[in-house]
What does this fold into?
Amino acid sequence: MTHPLDDAVWNALAGPHAQLAERRGRAARYPAEVSPFAAVAAADADALADLAALVPAGGIVALGGPAVALAGERWRALGGFEVVQMLCDAKVSPPARDFAELGRADVPEMLALVQRTEPGPFGPRTIELGRYLGTRDGGLLAAMAGERLRVPGYTEVSGVCTAPEARGRGLAEALVRAITAGIQARGDAPFLHVRAGSPSEATATALYARLGFRERRRTQLAVLQRLA
It folds into this structure.
């Protein structure tokens, strides 16, 4: 029996994020400004053809699972990496401090922080996926964290980043606590992904482990570009 998180992107696009999904046949994707993630219902050439019809020439998607091997002539592989999926199985208490709720007006600052810290894909409309919290230092956004994929019963913690000059103050841990506790308060189980082999893997994994996140599975993610 498969677990909902075995194909989190597909289950998010078919479920809680259905209003954002672009769909054709057995393929679905987020709008490019929201997220590069895409998914197919089955690992076969027909499903990949459906996905190709959703993506304009030159467009880029991130696709996981065995379907990547069937990408074929419609796609160019730009790279790939392993991601570690972690699931929280402990009750997380919120931090002692409060954080500001981030909204559309904060997106330019959020994009600037992401560009400096590279926590993973984040676009002009990523904030539509869920709740984001942040803190400022000297009037500038210094750290943030939020929610990304939502699967029935589960919500992903994502976008965790801290400006270099603000590190060492425990901001990332406090923000993850705040987001995780909020997810649990509405009855969902928090999960997240860490890029294996990244410079921050050891630090991030240790932080998440302290909060009760445990490795659940590993999977391959490919970045594909649609050919003309």
User: Anything to note?
Assistant: The longest strand covers residues 75-88.
